[in-house]
Amino acid sequence: MPGSILKTQPMFYRNLLWVVLLLLPSIEKTQWLVSESSSLTVNGSTNINKFSCDIPAYDQPDTLTLVKGKDVGLTGKIGLKIGSFDCHNSMMTKDLRKTLKEKEFPRLYIRFLSLSEFPEPTAQSKPITGWVNIELAGTSKRIEIKYQVSVDDQKIIHLIGTQDINFSDFDLIPPRKLGGMIKTNDQLTVAFHLKIKAI
């Protein structure tokens, strides 16, 4: 009797292992390359007018990893040069770069953490959400971003996100001019357009 139990134990453990593997959620990983033609725009206002500053191109292609299992994980980060911001006004451009502490912290980083669902390859734009860490001027803030995601004929995934942030979120003081007569409002709207392709 004891001998027959020993003979059946390996089969038992092998069957148990298969049951555990079947119960585990399947995991799918996809690598995405961020295109150089991706862009970021910051829209803001002062007490007298509105302004728009943008980084028209992405100078450092990076790779993001999307993990599809029970939950959807998006990992990786992109780094954008503060010196690439163009406000289409030399004084405003200089003031923004100075406010964002370009010399001390030359890059703005967006570190991706998660997505609400897997972005299916469809031409029709679809809303999803995701969490990111924005690292700016030495301060990091976790923010939920609202995206529109779609895929074009070249299989390029367009991930378009917008989010309101404040200078004060990153311990920054909005620029002021002419002895404080022109005051930049605290709130900014950040909009970015990532063009990414599965590799």
Would you give an account of this structure?
- The protein is of the alpha+beta class and 199 residues long.
- The protein is 16% helix and 47% strand.
- It is built from two helices and 13 strands; from the N terminus they run H-E-E-E-E-E-E-H-E-E-E-E-E-E-E.
- It has helices spanning 2-23, 90-99, and strands at 28-34, 39-45, 50-55, 63-68, 72-75, 77-81, 107-115, 126-136, 139-151, 157-166, 176-177, 182-183, 187-198.
- Strands 1, 2, 3, 4, 5, 6, 7, 8, 9, 10 and 13 form an eleven-stranded antiparallel β-sheet that branches. The protein has a two-stranded antiparallel sheet with strand order 11-12.
- The chain is elongated.
Question: What does the secondary structure layout of this molecule look like, with pairings?
Answer:
Blueprint: H1 2-23, E1 28-34, E2 39-45, E3 50-55, E4 63-68, E5 72-75, E6 77-81, H2 90-99, E7 107-115, E8 126-136, E9 139-151, E10 157-166, E11 176-177, E12 182-183, E13 187-198
Antiparallel strand pairs: 1-4, 1-13, 2-3, 2-13, 4-5, 6-7, 7-8, 8-9, 9-10, 10-13, 11-12
Features:
199 residues; alpha+beta; eleven-stranded antiparallel sheet; two-stranded antiparallel sheet; 47% strand
